[in-house]
Amino acid sequence: xxxxxxxxxxxxxxxxxxxxxxxxxxxxxxxxxxxxxxxxxxxxxxxxxxxxxxxxxxxxxxxxxxxxxxxxxxxxxxxxxxxxxxxxxx
Amino acid sequence: xxxxxxxxxxxxxxxxxxxxxxxxxxxxxxxxxxxxxxxxxxxxxxxxxxxxxxxxxxxxxxxxxxxxxxxxxxxxxxxxxxxxxxxxxxxxxxxxxxxxxxxxxxxxxxxxxxxxxxxxxxxxxxxxxxxxxxxxxxxxxxxxxxxxxxxxxxxxxxxxxxxxxxxxxxxxxxxxxxxxxxxxxxxxxxxxxxxxxxxxxxxxxxxxxxxxxxxxxxxxxxxxxxxxxxxxxxxxxxxxxxxxxxxxxxxxxxxxxxxxxxxxxxxxxxxxxxxxxx
Lengths: 90, 278
Fold this sequence. Notes:
By secondary structure, chain A is of the alpha+beta class. Chain A has one domain: Alpha-Beta Plaits (2-Layer Sandwich). Chain A has three helices and four strands, in the order E-H-E-E-H-E-H. Chain A has helices spanning about 20, 55-60, 75-90; strands at about 5-10, 30, 40-45, 65-70. In chain A, strands 1-4 form a two-stranded antiparallel sheet. Chain A has a two-stranded antiparallel ribbon with strand order 2-3. Chain A is elongated and about 50 Å long. Chain B contains ten helices and eight strands. Chain B has helices at about 30-45, 65, 80-90, 100-110, 110-120, 160, 170-175, 190-205, 220-225, 230-245; strands at about 10-15, 50-55, 70-75, 95-100, 125-130, 180-185, 210-220, 245-250. Chain B is globular and about 55 Å long. The two termini of chain B are about 35 Å apart. The interface of A and B includes residues 39, 84 and 86 of A.
């Protein structure tokens, strides 16, 4: 499995919870504390590193608060076609 | 196990450059912000940020010019297509788009959008349909569904009294000057991606000078519908889409090739023969 992580711009998050409804790994939760605007923002709770960096949370986020990262070379299978395409283009 | 530094990761997704760092005033879960982000991503992908002019409407999106990192101006209520026509005719090398809600485009501005389409202006219109007047507190709009309760139709929209909801995409698609008219929705991730593809095509139609392009987007209004953000997206799917079917209402022959470009060519050995645009 690909391995990824996310970074949330906590003070921009409005706590709408849409990202938690689409996460396939179920690693997103709402914070217990408030942010500067008085909303409870989303946090990544991922002790077992289940996040794959699929970016579904970022795609549905209405406030563009999520930046998604993915670790390179973890899954050679899924990256092989892209690497081949890049080699052909180079 | 040593912890992995963030610098070791590839960035898969980040906030587009075409959005400013300003926090939007939209309610939590409102898909206005989502549609802004899709437009921002498309502007970045097409590389037209320095060359784009946004015309903001009156309505919830009245401050849109603060949120897009492009030049912008504010039109009187419903008059965005008229103002955009003026801008585009004076500086035709710019990409001009209007961002309008249903109270703006489908009510007071019906005249302007119909005649802009009639003239075949090279504009892109993003029409956000959330079935009420959101900014003023959720009153009945021309697009309000039959029986839908709003602050000005407390017993539900009475179609005998005020008529049936207006289907704008179907209406504009009958006008020859409009070359690309589609309706999309943002109620789940798959449809969000389809909406983004349609917005990209709409901008490319304008850049190719093929006439007016309009994308109607079914959008949620959790506050005025009195629903959770998630429940509002389900209401789009269950209640709105049956009344406003998604689809391509007009794709002119000249536009057809633009709608095909996003499929990578897998004809050789089942692998990617060319890199997709993004």
